[in-house]
Specification:
Number of helices of chain A: 16
Helix content of chain A: 40-55%
Oligomer: homodimer
Shape of chain A: globular
Radius of gyration of chain A: 24 Å
Number of strands of chain A: 16
Chain lengths: 427, 427
């Protein structure tokens, strides 16, 4: 770290403000950059990353050794570690974003009004995006690529444990911007481990338009309390599958199995299985056998325990828990209304699915369950930007405003009104 | 005020929470109400209002007399006062909203993915909307109508000076809801003058999904500091007209006149006139003559003062001021870039217009000016939900997320993902 930067740390807020001023200026240039220029920058970033594999690995090794010396656990070190494959994935990801359609400038809903004016909506960048993430260094490249493609500047604040890795990746990103003639300040990394930098970033309303946090629940909770800037975020993924009594039994078993066991640690993994009483005797023993064979701990209500004797007793708190682990909460419910009541009470508005062959019930579930993704006859694991065809994903939102569900490039943009007149005035 | 309510005021937060619980329950019913039922409720509300003109006038008289006794100024009393015409406008407004298309349930962007799942987006209500407004009682009916049509429940917190009027209007609204078989708790009025009720409403994140403030700058500033719930709001309307040197002179005069003088007190009124140096000698004396004849005070830079000798000197602060009065700030700028720099620095991202016959400059202005409404060759006064064809307006937003510019029914809704499967699971 250079001396000038050390001196500036005396005033972390001032340092972060400098980043904000530079980002705002860069954002104005990015907003009018054409598609070819942005794509050239993304491809140049990818080339820089591929030609700096050794340097990236070396920088990462310093972070990894430091983390190990500090006694960080294996999962943490695993998230932090780069290898040749994950570096190639970063480069390929940037090229993939270059290949996506450019959302900026598209005009929709254009119409002529009785007064003669023409009114439409133009898709424009949000401006400056603050990304706050934990130890995964690949977010540096992934997030920068999406922000640039959508015409935004960004300020990246990764975990302090990944600072060397992030700086090395950011150097490649800046070189790519420069090669395409775009300002290097379009992507800036907060180069101080001082946590006050986060506090400054999330309250700098005049220079940052939106915050995208990527990390665990404690990070998100802190930001929710302290941020004065809107966020694209989700706190919890307490996802449900409701097996209706008119479900296809084979399909229900397949979906419940996949939703729980395909991956345990993801936010779209099923955490609670709701089963209609009429189908429970046929369904629960079968899915329990699968869960048992995969060492998934089952916690159920009394009705569940009667059918699955090795299920533990589920508490109120269990039903509100995002396990992110081989544990599943189970509850036998009377039917659709009870299932929706349960989801309303314990869910996190993330992703919920019904398995049923009854079209009317499917329609009610789709319309009435107030979650970002609502599904019929498929696995909650599909709630994902790539699976939805967005091409890429900056995160998943379970808020109701702006972007809801998996957020791709469009979520990093806004629509403004444009009005084309011919001298009309208001009477 | 009844005794039970008085007792509850001991715990204002608890009282507001009760409203929140009831609103959340009502919102689930409203979300699945069909279009005919919602329209029937709106029309029944209008009929109730028309058959209770005498009662509404009487309730309003109590508020008006109280305000006068407290020495409130004429403008305040004017905003507070209902008459037969404004009451009829409330009723007609509700019927007009009944005639608008129902946004709820529409599915867009439906597509089949390679995995077999079909992904689409369904438009759904936001849930519970908190409206915080000042003395105008008509907002009670207008806001309730828009919320109901978009399938939401709402909690209305009007100015304490209008409490009797608001309660009388709310009684008509509830009667209309009841007549259509909808829960009366879909529209609730906060029946306490205690300002702590506002503090409770804007922090009750589990029961309120969005806050819509309607009022002056001090109200909005307070809510921005304290609200934990997203808002649809604008703080300032510092709107600009830039007269380019390639403008049609007659058109520029007509637009600048209309943008400033058609109404002085509205947020889309021009507050600053920017003039390209090359056209200033031809343009400024002509518009100055009109402003002079309408007693509009002019404040300009030195270049302006040379052409308009009676213009006062404009300070930095003047350029950042929303006059809402017959005052206009004027500045001579070198050209398009300087005009956009000025707007970026002093503007409020509300509404800005360019007058030019140069297509390339118009396109740059449209794309690069980062405001909710950007206009070419027309008056900023057109920035309005009715003029844009939205049918009605809950407010104007100059935030970039969710709704931007005039906000109609669509701004009171959200889009969630729906996924239709046939037993697909993720591999």
């Amino acid at each position: 770290m250079d001396q000038a930067l050390e001196a500036r740390q005396v005033d972390v807020a001032g340092y972060v403000r400098e980043l904000g001023v530079a980002a705002r200026a860069a954002a104005r240039i990015l907003a009018r950059a054409d598609t070819d220029t942005k794509n050239a920058a993304l491809r140049a970033m990818a080339a820089e990353i591929r030609s700096h594999v050794a340097q990236l690995l070396e920088a990462n090794r310093a972070d990894v050794e430091h983390a190990q010396a500090q006694g960080r656990d294996a999962a943490f070190v695993d998230r932090l570690t780069l290898n040749e494959r994950s570096i190639e994935q970063m480069a390929a990801g940037l090229e993939q974003v270059a290949g996506l359609p450019d959302p900026i400038g598209a005009i929709s809903e254009r119409r002529r009004r009785p007064t003669g004016i023409e009114v439409g909506r133009m898709r424009v960048p949000l401006g400056v995006i603050g990304i706050i993430y934990e130890s995964r260094p690949n977010v540096t490249a992934d997030a920068a690529g999406l922000c640039i493609k959508a015409g935004n500047a960004c300020i990246l604040r990764g975990g302090s444990e990944a600072l060397h890795s992030n700086q090395a990746i950011a150097a490649c990103v800046r070189a790519g911007l420069k090669a395409a003639g775009l300002p290097e300040t379009a992507v800036q990394v907060v180069e101080t481990a001082d946590r006050a930098a986060v506090g400054a970033l999330i309250t700098m309303t005049e220079y940052v338009d939106i915050i995208v946090p990527r990390g665990g629940k404690s990070l998100i909770e802190r930001l929710m309390r302290e941020s004065r800037i809107p966020m694209i975020k989700h706190l919890d993924g307490v996802c449900h599958v409701y097996v209706d009594d008119r479900a296809d039994l084979e399909m229900a078993v397949r979906i419940a199995d996949n939703a729980k066991t395909q991956r345990y640690g993801t936010c779209n993994t099923m955490e609670t299985l709701l089963v209609a009483a009429a189908i429970a005797p046929a369904f629960l023993p079968r899915i329990a056998e699968i869960f048992r064979s995969k060492s998934v701990e089952m916690r159920g209500d009394e009705a569940t325990q009667r059918l699955v004797p090795d299920a533990k007793h589920a508490t109120e708190a269990d039903y509100a828990t995002e396990w992110l682990a081989p544990v599943v909460s189970i509850r036998v419910v009377e039917g659709l209304d009870a299932a929706m009541d349960h989801i309303e009470r314990y869910g996190s508005k993330h992703t919920d699915a019904i398995v049923t062959n009854d079209e009317a019930r499917a329609q009610r579930f789709l319309r009435e369950v107030d979650s970002a993704s609502v599904m019929v006859n498929t696995s909650t694991r599909f709630a994902d930007g790539f699976e939805y065809g967005l091409g890429a994903e900056i995160g998943i939102s379970n808020d109701k405003l702006h972007a809801r569900g998996p957020v791709g490039l469009e979520g990093l943009t806004s629509q403004k009104y444009i009005v084309l007149g011919h001298g009309e005035v208001r009477g």
